[in-house]
Amino acid sequence: GGGHYEYGGRRLVLYPGPRGDAQVLFHEGTHQVVHHFAQTARGPESFWFLEGLACYYEAFERDAAGGIVFHVVNRQRLPAASEALESGGATPLEALLRLPVDDFWRQLQEPGLDAEGRTRRAQRLYAEAWALWHLLLNSGPERKRAAADYVRAELKGHGGVEAFESTFGDLAALERELQGHVRRLRAESEK
Description:
Strand content: 5-15%
Shape: globular
Number of strands: 4
Strand order of the largest sheet: 1-2
Order of helices and strands: EEHHEEHHHHHHH
Radius of gyration: 16 Å
Helix content: 55-70%
Number of helices: 9
Largest sheet: 2 strands, antiparallel
Mean pLDDT: 92
């Protein structure tokens, strides 16, 4: 299975298949919702914002009644975030925040980057963006409210690194907190 969201046509396209159709639906559906509420012609262009949020909502569990529960650890993304951190190859937070979606795609086309290298780079960036959203939405009600404020600003076209730092504080401190968060999640997942 798989799918994508067509920004120009404002439609969600799913391909039938054996793997994770609901996960793909939630991921691509998040893009559709963000694009629907964006108050600028193109919508948000920050990779971390768009793909991280989509990766956050692609992860879900079922409760005892069969309902869907979000705000869980994305077990598909966590290993790549942890590996990037432990190998010293993690993207600096400010660089992640400044990465536009178009530059992400350009990075994957760099000469000398083979298919495996493209896959690893994409997986790492998606995972890092997911980890940032997981931290922002799961570290207390005050930060969750701040995240909601930032989403509103981004949808109005007023996002960016300066707005992010104004909302969440010092980037160096947040980067250290994010690293600790990923390490804790990894340790908890290995229990």
